[in-house]
Amino acid sequence: xxxYNVHEKEMNVYELVIPKIDKMMLxxxxxxxxxxKTLAVDRxxxxxxxxxxxxxxxxxxxxxxxxxxxxxxxxxxxxxKLHACSLKLIEMEPEIFDRFNIGILxxxxxxxxxxxxxxxxxxxxxxxxxxxxxxxxxxxxxxMQPLFIENSLTVTDHEGEVDLRVLNHGDPWTNxxxxxxxxxxxxxxxxxxxxxxxxxTTPAADLFYFFYTSTEDEIRQxxxxxxxxxxxxxxxxxxxxxxxxxxxxxLHQFQQHLLKKMFFAVNSSIVPLPIAINEVTCDADFxxxxxxxxxxxxxxxxxxxxxxxxxxxxxxxxVFDRKGLLDTLK
Length: 330
Hints:
Layout: H1 6-27, E1 38-42, E2 47-50, H2 69-92, H3 113-127, H4 135-144, H5 148-153, E3 166-168, E4 177-181, E5 187-192, E6 199-201, H6 203-214, H7 217-222, H8 224-242, H9 251-260, H10 263-270, H11 272-276, H12 286-290, H13 294-304, H14 307-322
Antiparallel strand pairs: 1-2, 3-6, 4-5
Helix pairs in contact: 1-2, 2-6, 2-8, 3-4, 3-13, 6-10
Protein name: CHK kinase-like domain-containing protein
Pfam families: EcKL
Domain CHK kinase-like: 48-241
């Protein structure tokens, strides 16, 4: 993990970026909490001390069940704030995100490629045990096998000034957020946690990763376009309120941008999603996730054997296929 420099990056973002975002939101009258309060950044010991959110009533959601509609919308508003503020920050300080150019999946290091590839390979092996009607999709994934990493990397490739880029959270799944709920269980506030993989790239990376790893099955299957419009409406509204000079893309342009980057939906559904909903704790540690040995391969096989995951991915594969995402992309 040294290639990712996660400790220094997280200290930098909480010390140098988050206070500016908090101040920016206050300037437009938004007093809601987006990140935990940072009590101290101790660079000598590579440590950050945060407030105790539990004392404030914040709780984590059920990662296996996933988020319902209201909680999903609350997170999308939070991501819209983060993304919009980062665009305004770039206008004010053009070099502010130069040190945040490495996300989980990046061309800067191959350190975690084996984690992505082993998950993809494990899904193919699991699919070979399914009913013959899934052979069509298994064949397509096998053909894609040597291209999976490259197809995923193209999501983070940029095309000059025309490509939309923001500061991404980088790892926005259920366990990296906490909610303050009212007495009826409805979300009042959300706080985003763990910015070790934050990076300056397309907002599509955060949006696909969050949507496909952290929502309830019904929402994941049926509400993508609706919720991306919901995100866009808040994103564009915050850009306007913040006084951004950059021309705001139209909803149509934004949806085109998402479609262009949609292979990350495939990646998110195959790599982090089955791990997020896994309930088998044996070997479920960092080495089990990222290694390249028999222990890792066994853990990935166990994760892919989850019947809940089968139901999800079997519903998604035909959708991805109809969009051409299981074929040659270029």
